Amino acid sequence: MMQLSRHPTTYPTRYQQIAAQLEDELRAHYRCGDYLPSEQQLADRYQVNRHTLRRAVDQLVERGWLQRRHGIGILVLMRPYDYPLHAKTRFSQNLFEQGSHPTSERLLAVLRPCNGHIASALSREEGETVIHLRTLRRVNGVPLSVIDHYLPDLDWWPALQQFHSGSLHEFIEQRIHQSLTRSQTRISARRAQAKESQLLEIATHAPLLCVRTLNTCVGSNSVAEYSVSLARADMIELTMEH
């Protein structure tokens, strides 16, 4: 009578092989915000039908490497952007140097009384009026972070009302003739709330990096800006330089 092995040898299926090869390609050649070729192009490359290719992609979606975007394509999520933190960090310049296309748009610009937390950060009395800007940053068209900027100098308000897109710090340097430098950074983590999930196009309760920064004008010790950035944790890696 034939004896069956208690330890059968298993081999990866074709779609598992493709998933492994695709993962290697993602590590070597893609960044967050890139898109894969179409499923048909990938199926032709690997000489399989679209059903087999789709199963391979599904594996990488489950592992968090990829995201299907209906009507657009297959978005790469992994290989986060390297974002060094030091006094002269420039978000846009840093990502340009990594071969990406960062953009920033203003979502909000108002004057408002500051609460206790913001007042403390800006060394102001609670209830004092400050400038509040909110911006949304994208990389290669994919939302990366939403940032609340609080600025105490009301003399800047007429100029800042003209800010609509691009680098806020470059705008301040060009229009207000002040250069800002980072003096303190605090980093924590939390889950995305509904409004943040909508802006960043992520699931509710997805992990976010919360980066709170104090910036001063060059040559001054007084705080010129307090910002709170909520960034997608799957798209950015912070590097502390010493």
Q: Any key phrases for this structure?
A:
Chorismate lyase; elongated; Arc Repressor Mutant, subunit A; alpha+beta; about 30% helix; 6-stranded antiparallel beta sheet; DNA binding; about 240 residues; transcription regulation; 2 domains
What is the gist of this entry?
One of its GO terms (molecular function) is DNA binding. Keywords: DNA-binding, Transcription, Transcription regulation. With 242 residues, this protein is an alpha+beta fold.
Strand order of the largest sheet: 4-5-6-9-8-7
Please bin the fraction of helical residues: 25-40%
CATH superfamily of the largest domain: Chorismate lyase-like
The major pleated sheet works out as:
6 strands, antiparallel
- Please report the distance between the alpha carbons of the first and last residues: 70 Å
Low-confidence stretches: none
Question: Which CATH architecture of the largest domain would you pick?
Answer: 3-Layer(aba) Sandwich
Query: What top-tier CATH class of the largest domain fits best?
Result: Alpha Beta
Domain module tally: 2
The topology string of helices and strands comes to: HHHEEEHEHEEHHEHEEE
